[in-house]
Specification:
- This protein is an all-alpha fold.
- It has a domain at 2-179.
- Helices cover 64% and strands 2% of the residues.
- The strands form 2 sheets. Strands 1-2 form a two-stranded parallel sheet.
- Helix 11 packs antiparallel against helix 12.
- The radius of gyration is 22 Å and the shape is globular.
- It starts with a strand and ends in a 7-residue tail after the last helix.
Length: 486
């Protein structure tokens, strides 16, 4: 065994190896499905992929031994590198089985899976085998809570900095630990995640979904992923099924730490202001969508259901669809583009900017306006009853600027790469990718797919998906040349 006591790049092998091994273990559900349905070719491809990832991961862990804990900078870098490697190894089942003719399509589908974006290059997912459909869904399920959070339960035993990794992965102001040890917190959140997945699975199976469809959709509902086994997404299922999906998209958009606290103290929901803000955004989105789309439907219940479903799937970034919202009027279409930026609560599986950042941003704007009117006014911003530190305000503003910057840069690049697409399609594709939504507007709406885009465009969108899932900073830090200096 080789011991490395200081080089950062070699210490990262510990984390990356754990993630690669996890990618190998993630193939097990799909392998079982392949055996059940006697899909031997794809089953062997999944088995080979799992073995390759498992062997590489275990070898990496065995060859490197380190007792040095991560710094904050190293934690961010470990997160970014781990997700990149995870996506690369996640393409193996598609490549070995020949599911996609081009490697870029396998990379795009895998990126959309692990980042829970839900964008796809498949015109009909039902053409895939059961094994590959479940692998596709499993990538979203594992990506939902974050493969790094899962590894926190293991990393402290390896001597790595689990706390720093949690800080890098945490979608809120700080990691929301419910116990003194991050390992215990991660374990509790994952048990809750598994439990909710089982609940939605049972409820979907009671309806008009088959057991396999219920499993696959439960794997993509809780992570707000949006991959479906059907070309029509959720639109071909009953009203009951659609309302169940709506409910659990909302649940997935709420902080899992809040859910856990509410198990013993339901009043925690009523006391949480961020939850009130999130539900208020959902309410406004439903009203706007309903008013803009009312003339396109038939039947009151159907119109209300389509409006609620579309608003919830866009705000939470799930990406399911029951109707082709791309054909609605320009007002509601532009509103949907705006709602792609919102996202769910901190600590949820949703993407985009997040409710707490929007809240702090609006409070900062309000304070700035007050200072203009009353220059001598001294005010303290508060969030969830606690004073907001200037450092956090600065980070939120910087995040928002970077988020908009990546969105604009992505749209401009797509404009150059895809001159045949209109501005709505280009802008919404960039917003959808960085917000981890999935379907876009225009030519890339919910009834279309991304197969017609060029290789460079798919690479740009895959990169934006990763940037959005990791909330920008890990990627920015990894790409900063100073990080690579000794």
């Amino acid at each position: 065994m080789i011991a490395f006591k200081s080089p950062t790049r070699l210490r990262l092998i510990v984390v990356v190896s754990a993630v690669i091994a996890a990618a190998g273990a993630a193939t097990v559900p799909a392998i079982i499905a392949g055996v059940i349905y006697a899909e031997w070719s794809d089953t062997l491809a999944l088995l080979a992929s799992g073995v390759i990832a498992g062997v590489v991961g275990l070898l990496g862990r065995r060859l490197v031994k380190t007792e040095v804990r991560f710094t904050s900078r190293e934690g961010f870098a470990a997160v970014a590198l781990s997700w990149m490697i995870l996506i690369l190894f996640g393409t193996l089942p598609y490549l070995i089985s020949g599911t996609f003719d081009r490697p870029i399509d396998a990379l795009f589908e895998t990126s959309a899976g692990f980042t829970t974006t839900g964008a796809t290059v498949l015109s009909d997912p039902g053409s895939l085998s059961h094994a590959m459909l479940l692998w596709r869904a499993t990538t979203q399920w594992f990506g939902g809570m974050g493969i790094i959070v899962l590894s926190i339960a293991v990393l402290p035993m390896l001597g790595a900095g689990g706390v720093e990794l949690a800080r890098a992965e945490a979608p809120g102001p700080e990691p929301d630990r419910m116990t003194p040890r991050f390992r215990d917190t991660a374990e509790r959140l994952w048990w809750l995640y598994v439990g909710l997945t089982l609940v939605v699975m049972v409820l979907l199976a009671i309806g008009d979904m088959s057991l396999f469809q219920a499993i696959a959709h439960s794997f993509t509902t809780m992570p707000t992923g949006g991959f479906s086994t059907e070309a029509s997404s959720i639109g071909g299922f009953s009203a009951y099924t659609q309302w169940v999906v709506i409910l659990f998209m909302l649940i997935a958009g709420v902080s899992f730490a809040l859910h856990f606290r509410a198990l013993s103290r339901p009043r925690a929901y009523l006391e949480n202001r961020e939850l009130f803000g999130f539900l208020s955004i959902i309410g406004v989105a439903i009203l706007v969508v309903a008013l803009g789309s009312w003339s396109f439907g038939s039947g009151v219940e159907s119109r209300v259901r389509d409006a609620v479903f579309t608003a919830v799937t866009i705000v939470t970034g799930t990406g399911y669809a029951t109707v082709d919202w791309a054909v609605w009027g320009p007002g509601v279409v532009l509103a949907l583009l705006v709602f792609m930026f919102f996202g769910g609560m901190a600590g949820s599986t949703a993407g985009a900017v997040k409710t707490y950042r929007l809240g702090i941003l609006f409070k900062t704007i309000g304070s700035s306006i007050k200072r203009i009117s009353y220059p001598s006014l001294v005010s303290v911003q508060r969030f969830e009853g606690r004073a907001v530190e200037p450092r956090l305000v600065h980070n939120v503003i910087a995040f928002f600027v970077l988020y908009v910057g990546f969105f604009v840069a992505g749209a401009v690049l797509l404009g150059f790469l895809e001159p045949g697409l209109n501005l709505t399609t280009i802008g919404s594709a960039s917003a959808s990718a960085i917000g981890n939504v999935g379907p876009a507007l225009g030519d890339l709406g919910p009834t279309s797919n991304y197969s017609g885009l060029g290789t460079d465009s798919k690479l740009v969108l895959s990169f934006l998906m990763l940037v959005g899932r990791l909330e920008i900073y890990p990627i920015v830090i990894l790409l900063t040349h100073r990080w690579w200096r000794r």
